[in-house]
Write a structure and sequence with these properties.
- With 331 residues, this protein is mostly helical.
- The chain is 75% helix and 2% strand.
- It has 14 helices and 4 strands.
- The strands form 2 sheets. It has a two-stranded antiparallel ribbon with strand order 1-4. A two-stranded antiparallel ribbon has the order 2-3.
- The longest helix is centred in the C-terminal third of the chain and has 28 residues.
- The chain is globular, with a radius of gyration of 21 Å.
- The relative contact order is 0.18.
């Protein structure tokens, strides 16, 4: 009888573990599908049209790129509140260079370099001075926003003939370039995180920084790299928006983008405490936000209520992270 009880208990535990693994694998994909189907009914069939799906993918593209960079940061237990401001400064740098006749074709490198540069500065302050990531990037959010405004004299910079404009408005085999870039970023990020030593070290630092130091991992270098990657992704987001808008404004561009990026990462299953997460989950999180935004517009919800709903989603994402942490602790 005792052996039978142990067998039943073991079978029950195995079944629970399988269910837990299935939920972990699917992540927020069922939520994404449910939200999309819901908006299909609420919008009288206007959501699942070819044109609207293309719009959703384009709307998700920039946030996906920013959220990919944010995933690297949050996996180490950090946070980057400055990505929106860095995007604005990077876009300003790119547009300014694009208007220089002899240097116009280098504008993309100007945007990427500006983004990576600010990211590295964040990383240096965090790794060298041991300052809290929240405080450093909160300061950068304000300081870099000011720099972005100074770069354009607090005016919008335009260039209707910006080189490589096809990135923002054209498609290849029916796939928008913006969406294609976002997918490439996700695939490369997955490879780095899951198939390289750097990725292993990033997870190790987020899981237990002290143990990572004792094992010989150069923790300051990891912080420098992940914040540099986050800044680079902000620069790439600036390139994508510049090609789409043909303009940049230091005051308005990128406002609150950091919130969408963080929400996408947490919705995707990456834990705020670090060490646990998936880049594919981040992609699902970014798509949920894009579907939510697009669907609310389709059914005529005012922008005021859109802010309220997005705020509730952010709170829900953090609450979900806490629930996941407790579930992991039990298992």
């Amino acid at each position: 009888m005792a052996n039978d009880a142990i067998a039943v208990s073991g079978s029950d535990l195995a079944r629970r573990q399988k269910i837990h693994n299935l939920i972990s694998t699917l992540g927020m994909l069922p939520v994404l599908l449910a939200v999309a189907v819901g908006f299909q009914f609420l919008s009288s069939g206007r959501f699942f049209t070819g044109q609207n799906i293309s719009i959703v993918f384009q709307q998700a593209s920039v946030n996906t790129v920013l959220a990919a960079g944010m995933t690297f940061v949050i996996l180490t237990g950090g946070i980057d509140l400055s990505v929106g401001s860095i995007l604005a400064a990077s876009a300003m740098a790119g547009l300014i260079v694009s208007n220089m006749p002899d240097l116009s074709y280098l504008w993309i490198f100007a945007s990427l370099g500006m983004g990576a540069g600010f990211g590295v500065i964040n990383g240096l302050l965090i790794s060298s001075l041991r300052l809290p990531p929240f405080i450093v990037t909160l300061g950068s959010l304000t300081a870099v926003r000011g720099i972005a405004r100074l770069m354009g004299g607090d005016n919008t910079v335009f260039n209707s003939d910006i080189p490589y404009a096809f990135i923002g408005n054209d498609s290849i085999m029916g796939i928008p370039w913006l969406a294609l870039i976002a997918v490439i970023v996700i695939v490369v990020s997955w490879f780095v995180l899951k198939r390289t030593v750097l990725g292993t070290h990033i997870y190790s630092v987020g899981g237990n920084e002290a143990a990572a130091r004792l094992s010989g991992i150069k923790v300051p270098r990891i912080y420098l790299v992940v914040y540099g990657i986050s800044g680079l992704m902000s620069g790439l987001g600036a390139v994508m928006l510049s090609c789409k808008l043909f303009a940049a404004n230091g005051l308005q561009l990128g406002q609150a983008y950091e919130l969408d990026a963080i929400t996408a990462v947490i919705l995707g299953g990456t834990s705020f405490v670090g060490g646990v997460g998936s880049i594919w989950g981040t992609l699902i999180g970014a798509l949920i936000i894009a579907v939510l935004t697009n669907g609310l517009i389709l059914i005529g919800v005012s922008d005021i209520w859109q802010y309220v709903i997005k705020g509730l989603v952010i709170i829900g994402a953090v609450a979900l992270d806490r629930v996941r942490q407790k579930g992991s602790a039990r298992t």
